[in-house]
């Protein structure tokens, strides 16, 4: 099995889209991620997976905390920006929640303290203990087979 085959196979698992943010030296750092999952209810734990070579790996490690914004179906452009697909610099008007920068109008904002880390292959798994949560109504931004999808329709969007 080659890397491309494995990546294609993993792309067949539909996911939501998140933006992971943290603060370091009074500067907001962020990245788009679909490698996110809940781990435990008691205590409330979630997991994010960050590439070993990603700048965000260093930022989360140094700050010891992170926020997760689960994007809504109208936030594809925000996902693209934090994935580095939009090269222009933007002045993002963050929602400050529990002292952390989060993406406004997201379906969910979570703030977390790093509870544990595990290096697994070429990624670091950060298990975060959830310190606060904010939930709003809406439809999720979904990702499947390398494309954004509307969960309410069978056709792919942009």
Automatic annotation (TrEMBL):
- Which PANTHER family does the record associate with it? FLAVIN REDUCTASE, FMN REDUCTASE (NADH) RUTF
**Superkingdom, according to UniProt?**
Bacteria
User: Which residue ranges run through the membrane?
Assistant: none
One annotated GO molecular function is: riboflavin reductase (NADPH) activity
The alphabetical list of record keywords is:
Oxidoreductase
Cross-referenced InterPro entries? Flavin_Rdtase-like_dom (IPR002563), NADH-dep_flavin_reductase (IPR050268), Split_barrel_FMN-bd (IPR012349)
Please state every residue range assigned to the domain named Flavin reductase like. Answer: 10-150
Please give the name of this protein.
Flavin reductase
